[in-house]
Write a sequence for this structure.
């Protein structure tokens, strides 16, 4: 009878429904062993804020299994498939969530939250909530289950990001890739280079053509709307958000995009370019011909100094350094770039990009970090430990990278770029995209770390539009990242989505109607 109520997203690996009901009430206690204390406190806080239940919390290694309790255990009893694995057992007497790691316990809690009837979200006083007796064994298909947010084109601020992190946690997503710099804005405070934010975080407006849905314009003379866009994160704000993400077992991967998409940096420090400028923070989109000069040592000094501060703030081992859409036009004409080509014995300016990437990759490695970049960084000479982030073109080359044992993350533009309208990428198309291409040799699957949905914000200028574009397609991506491929069914996903949507509503998320997000597909 409860089949209909087991609507969990992402669909777990193994679920069995048993007879009986557990009654969750004010009398239920939360018991957590020492390693699960933080998870216990998190569960207590979510049950209070979202369901109005104030449960007593006991730290305990001697679980009192006799009374109505939610027991969180981090134990090493079982050989696990995966460090994020958990098991969830609901019986009439108690609920036991166990895992070998605290992240596993956290994911068990997320599944439990989806077993609580949605009516409890509405704030009505409900004295007892029925949870069906079940046993669930669960672990993710991919290690990398990500979402990319572009705050360079538009700046949304801390509260918007924290809400996204809350919802990512519900969906067992574990990587927030944060695109913080681009031609249209520099959004991260760097103490050594104050002009990056003083000048680089502000632009006068945005091309008017965007209102008609034109994606980019290379023309310099298109009118701009005159609505200023500005904003950046201080170190303190960044650390606060990183801590918030960490409490939800989400790693934030900062992206500082070099050597192209750098107009905001060049507006502040034009000496980093081939021509010397002057430049303005861009008010239009697309590819800009002015990029960092690879002939100048100051460019390497600057990039390393910026990354030093970034590494100080962000504990993530992986640092994304962009590398997409870098035109060579300036390099071809620049005497310093040409000098570099001769000195390094390169064939031509097409090799300057890999030269830049490798020097930065080596620098990051020397600090115990690892470079990740968009697929344009691929080159026979690319550093072995650079992670390739696939978005478009050259899928073959990206797969060859993985077959050589190097790592890749998949963000196929035509399926998981959430900035595209629903009529171009309906939710079904996003759901059916698989990061392992058809026919790919499964010996090398482990080198495809996972999937990431991207939200570029050229035309997303407020929180409501951001949420509207993101949900429910990010929910579809979360299921692809977690659920075994053979268990994924779109019809089942849609049914389960019906029960997930009230959770989004509880977070006051602005999402489209079913007609809008399905677009009759
Ligand atoms: C990209 O969409 N330019 C990575
Ligand atoms: Zn140059």
């Amino acid at each position: 009878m409860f089949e209909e109520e087991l609507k969990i997203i992402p669909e777990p690996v193994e679920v069995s429904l048993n007879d009986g009901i557990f009654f969750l009430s004010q009398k239920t206690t939360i018991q957590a062993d020492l390693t699960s204390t933080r998870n216990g406190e998190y569960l207590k806080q979510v049950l209070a804020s979202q369901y109005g239940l104030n449960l007593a919390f006991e730290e305990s290694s001697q679980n009192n299994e006799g009374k109505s309790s939610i027991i969180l255990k981090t134990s090493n009893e079982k050989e696990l498939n995966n460090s994020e694995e958990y098991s969830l057992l609901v019986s009439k007497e108690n609920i036991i969530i166990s895992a070998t790691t605290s992240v596993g316990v956290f994911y068990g809690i997320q599944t439990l939250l989806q077993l609580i009837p949605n009516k409890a979200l509405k704030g009505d006083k409900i004295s007892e909530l029925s949870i069906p007796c079940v046993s669930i064994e669960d672990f993710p298909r991919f290690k990398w289950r990500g979402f990319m947010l572009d705050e360079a084109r538009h700046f949304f601020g801390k509260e918007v990001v924290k809400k996204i992190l809350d919802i990512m946690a519900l969906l067992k997503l574990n990587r927030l890739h944060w695109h913080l710099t681009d031609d249209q804005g520099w959004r991260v405070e760097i103490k050594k280079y104050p002009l990056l934010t003083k000048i680089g975080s502000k632009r006068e407006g945005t091309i008017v053509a965007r209102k008609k849905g034109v994606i980019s314009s290379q023309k310099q003379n298109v009118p701009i709307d005159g609505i200023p866009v500005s904003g950046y994160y201080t170190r303190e704000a960044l650390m606060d958000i990183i801590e918030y993400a960490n409490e939800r077992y989400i790693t934030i991967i900062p992206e500082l995009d070099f050597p192209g998409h750098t107009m905001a940096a060049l507006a502040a420090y034009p000496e980093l370019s081939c021509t010397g400028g002057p430049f303005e923070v861009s008010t239009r989109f697309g590819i800009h011909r002015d990029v960092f000069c690879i002939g100048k040592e100051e460019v390497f000094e600057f990039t390393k100094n910026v990354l030093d501060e970034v590494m100080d703030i962000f504990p993530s081992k992986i640092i994304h350094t962009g590398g997409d859409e870098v035109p060579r036009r300036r390099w071809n004409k620049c005497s310093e770039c040409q000098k570099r080509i001769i000195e390094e014995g390169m064939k031509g300016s097409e090799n300057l990009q890999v030269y830049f990437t490798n020097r930065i990759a080596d620098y990051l490695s020397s600090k115990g970090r690892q470079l990740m970049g968009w697929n344009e960084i691929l080159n026979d000479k690319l550093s072995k430990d650079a992670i390739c982030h696939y978005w478009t073109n050259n899928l073959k080359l990206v797969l060859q990278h993985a077959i050589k044992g190097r790592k890749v993350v998949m963000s196929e533009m035509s399926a998981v770029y959430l900035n595209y309208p629903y009529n171009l990428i309906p939710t079904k198309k996003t759901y059916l995209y698989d990061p392992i291409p058809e026919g790919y040799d499964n010996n090398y699957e482990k080198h495809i770390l996972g999937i990431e949905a991207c939200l570029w914000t050229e035309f997303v200028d407020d929180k409501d539009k951001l949420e509207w574009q993101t949900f429910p397609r990010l929910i579809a991506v979360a299921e692809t990242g977690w659920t075994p491929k053979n268990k994924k069914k779109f019809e089942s996903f849609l049914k389960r989505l019906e029960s997930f949507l009230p959770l989004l509503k509880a977070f006051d998320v602005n999402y489209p109607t079913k007609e809008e997000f399905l677009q009759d597909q």
Observations:
- The domain at 2-138 is CATH 3.30.379.10 (Chitobiase; domain 2).
- The two ends are 31 Å apart (CA to CA).
- The chain has 17 helices and 19 strands.
